[in-house]
């Protein structure tokens, strides 16, 4: 970033010294480039950086394996080094590993890698010092893509040279050139932009682009965006697969590939048309491979997209340390998830292969990898599981149903919740005794229950609050009065079962009305040791229990909740403390899936994600505090199911990928310490 003083600040990846601070350490906060106080323009390549100085000299730093620093050698530099023989530059541009400068007299010089003719000097030889392009004396603009270069001429036309495999030279062919070639059918241009294998030119009212188009060559210019009579186009910037423009008013619009949020409209859907970004007036734009940044009119810098290497400048090395984020993180190395669950600071998923992966908190062995220490910011396989058909998680433990009908569990076992005598955590999968016909399993804090293939339910662990449902206060056995269950879900110390009839039966603790049977205040102190029916509910199609509240999706597509409501987690529009019978979730229709966390809930309704309740760590995916009614937040995800923890949320996508948001204190977002944000975030320390 160029400061008003002429100083330069940089952040992000620094493996080649491209931040100019004398080191090769990645920085998630801005650091000052050493020895620069008179810069007036910057140009950034793949792993090198250059600054145009007030005097007309140019200084570069970073990777120099192809001579792109112009220092007369191929020695990389972690601090600025002056380009040889250049003292009258007025504009600079950098490609992947080449650099060019427009001189005061309209000539252009280039240096660095020339394997595709991107230096335009009739050779394919690497140049470590500036080499002039013959016959070019009327340049007024200069841009560079990865392996090509383009110039805007005084006439309003454009010429390009270098690689052309995607048609990025705009001459109607895909043949590369080591000399300038005119872009076809372009006149009246006032500016150019290049990125990757694409080039665009713009007039005051229209943007035309050529080159790579969704992986395909597009060698002739075509119109892709318009301004308006009252708000023309002032600036255009390109990344390899996305673009942003700035209007005269300062409004910013972006379009293109958007899997990592680089378009900045709050979604992860690719955009074929320019989409407005909620930034306020903008003075300048800059785009990287998978991220975007803007200098706002208030002199604040905001960035969005992929934070790999600290590119978003958040100062948290990818959201480690518990920072809340409304941006979504894609779980790395997972694209075939078939089921997903979350506990307190960790998540697990089954794969198509039958394997299970877990990530996040592991102090009680909840990842099942045999270690029982530390945390994991990336998915790791659970030991010895290759045949999982169902999966569940409690606050600090998890269980899997195997193809055989057996159940294995791991994690905390202080109350016998893993089917063994209470004791130390079990860090590898351990079988639940006497259970070989399970279809599904659920876990509370200190107990577990299995749905048997017959429709009966078997529970084990603590029975201090009647959570085993056997009516006798023993330490395990078959739940009474229940033989037609089709699904189970547990809270802290209670469990609910969905019956074939659409009724829901619950048992266990009822101190917050979580049984849902309409109990009066005096009855809430007494645990319910045998199943009772949730009042006024006979059409449930999905159930989800939090620690002390629960929600259902009804057959008509509406949702209802009951129990604890101190954070608005029932979605009823109030924060009254307890509802002992169901209340409708406000404003939801056509619900396709619903899930509940410790103090929040989420649903997909009408194809849109909405969440409500606690949002203290961004687990609701929207900006602001707790919400008592559903609020739209994260969008652009094709969600098959949710898994909600205490302060994070994960979604299994129909593609098999998993996306998470909220707290990342224990690496529970599974992004390997990397963050992506689909909304602009202010850069830390600027």
Secondary structure elements and their pairing?
Layout: E1 9-12, E2 27-32, E3 39-44, E4 48-53, E5 58-62, E6 77-82, E7 89-94, E8 98-103, E9 108-112, E10 127-132, E11 139-144, E12 148-153, E13 158-162, E14 177-182, E15 191-195, E16 198-202, E17 206-211, E18 222-226, E19 233-238, E20 242-247, E21 252-256, E22 271-276, E23 282-287, E24 291-296, E25 301-306, E26 329-330, E27 337-342, E28 346-351, E29 356-361, E30 375-381, E31 388-393, E32 397-402, E33 407-411, E34 426-431, E35 438-443, E36 447-452, E37 457-461, E38 476-478, E39 485-490, E40 494-499, E41 504-508, E42 528-533, E43 540-545, E44 549-554, E45 559-564, E46 578-584, E47 591-596, E48 600-605, E49 608-613, E50 627-632, E51 639-644, E52 648-653, E53 658-662, E54 676-682
Antiparallel strand pairs: 1-2, 3-4, 4-5, 5-6, 7-8, 8-9, 9-10, 11-12, 12-13, 13-14, 15-16, 16-17, 17-18, 19-20, 20-21, 21-22, 23-24, 24-25, 25-54, 26-53, 27-28, 28-29, 29-30, 31-32, 32-33, 33-34, 35-36, 36-37, 37-38, 39-40, 40-41, 41-42, 43-44, 44-45, 45-46, 47-48, 48-49, 49-50, 51-52, 52-53
GO cellular component, one term: cytoplasm
Protein name: BNR repeat domain protein
InterPro entries: Ran_GTPase-activating, RCC1-like_dom, RCC1/BLIP-II, Reg_chr_condens
């Amino acid at each position: 970033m160029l400061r008003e003083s002429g100083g330069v600040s940089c952040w992000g990846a620094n493996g080649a010294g491209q931040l100019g601070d004398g080191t090769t350490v990645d920085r998630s906060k801005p650091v000052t480039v050493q020895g620069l106080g008179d810069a007036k323009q910057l140009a950034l390549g793949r792993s090198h950086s250059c600054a145009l100085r007030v005097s007309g000299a140019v200084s570069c730093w970073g990777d120099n394996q192809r001579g792109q620093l112009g220092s007369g050698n191929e020695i990389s530099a972690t601090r600025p080094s002056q380009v040889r023989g250049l003292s009258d530059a007025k504009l600079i541009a950098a490609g992947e590993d080449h650099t060019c400068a427009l001189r005061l007299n309209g000539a252009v010089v280039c240096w660095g890698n020339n394997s595709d003719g991107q230096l335009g000097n009739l050779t394919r030889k690497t140049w470590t010092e500036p080499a002039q392009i013959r016959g070019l004396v009327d340049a007024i603009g200069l841009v560079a893509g990865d392996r090509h270069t383009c110039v805007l001429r005084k006439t309003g036309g454009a010429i390009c040279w270098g690689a052309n495999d995607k048609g990025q030279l705009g001459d109607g062919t895909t043949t590369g050139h080591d000399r300038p070639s005119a872009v076809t059918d372009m006149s009246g241009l006032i500016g150019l932009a290049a990125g990757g294998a694409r080039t665009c030119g713009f007039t005051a009212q229209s943007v035309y682009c050529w080159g790579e188009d969704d992986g395909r060559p597009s060698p002739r210019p075509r119109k892709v965006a318009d301004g308006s009579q009252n708000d023309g186009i002032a600036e255009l910037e390109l990344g390899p697969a996305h673009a942003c423009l700035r209007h005269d008013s300062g409004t910013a619009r972006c379009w293109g590939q958007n899997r990592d949020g680089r378009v900045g409209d709050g979604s992860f859907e690719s955009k074929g048309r320019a989409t407005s970004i909620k930034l306020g007036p903008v003075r300048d734009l800059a785009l990287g491979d998978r991220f975007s940044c803007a200098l706002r009119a208030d002199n604040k810098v905001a960035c969005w997209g992929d934070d790999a290497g600290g590119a978003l400048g958040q100062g948290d090395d990818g959201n480690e340390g518990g920072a809340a984020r409304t941006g979504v993180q894609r779980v790395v190395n997972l694209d075939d998830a078939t089921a997903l669950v979350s506990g307190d600071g960790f998540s697990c998923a089954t794969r198509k292969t039958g394997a299970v992966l877990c990530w996040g908190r592991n102090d009680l062995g909840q990842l099942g990898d045999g270690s029982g220490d530390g945390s994991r910011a990336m998915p790791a396989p659970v030991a010895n599981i290759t045949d999982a058909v169902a999966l569940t998680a409690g606050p600090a433990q998890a269980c899997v149903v195997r193809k055989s009908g057996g159940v294995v569990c791991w994690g905390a076992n202080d109350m016998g919740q893993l089917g063994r005598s209470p004791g130390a955590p079990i860090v590898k999968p351990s079988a639940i005794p006497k259970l070989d016909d399970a279809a599904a399993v659920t876990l509370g804090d200190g107990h577990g229950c299995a749905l048997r293939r017959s429709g009966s339910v078997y529970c084990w662990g603590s029975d201090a609050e009647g959570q085993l449902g056997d009516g006798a206060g023993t330490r395990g056995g078959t739940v009474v009065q229940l033989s037609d269950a089709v699904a189970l879900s547990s809270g802290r110390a209670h469990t609910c079962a969905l019956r074939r009839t659409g009724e829901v039966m619950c048992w266990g603790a009822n101190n917050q009305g979580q049984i849902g049977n309409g109990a009066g205040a005096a009855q809430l102190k007494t645990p319910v040791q045998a199943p009772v029916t949730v009042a006024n509910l006979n059409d449930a199609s999905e159930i989800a229990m939090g620690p002390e509240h629960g929600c259902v999706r009804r057959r008509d597509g509406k949702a209802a909740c009951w129990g604890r409501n101190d954070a608005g987690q029932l979605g009823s529009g109030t924060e009254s403390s307890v509802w002992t019978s169901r209340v409708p979730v406000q404003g939801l229709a056509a619900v396709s899936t619903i899930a509940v966390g410790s103090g929040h809930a989420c649903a997909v309704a009408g194809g849109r994600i909405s969440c409500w309740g606690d949002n203290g760590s961004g687990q609701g995916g929207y900006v602001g505090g707790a919400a008592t009614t559903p609020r739209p937040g994260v969008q652009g995800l094709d969600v098959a199911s949710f898994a909600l923890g205490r302060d994070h949320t994960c979604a299994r996508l129909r593609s098999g990928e998993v996306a998470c948001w909220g707290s990342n204190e224990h690496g529970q977002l599974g992004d390997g310490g990397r963050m992506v944000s689909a909304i602009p975030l202010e850069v830390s320390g600027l």
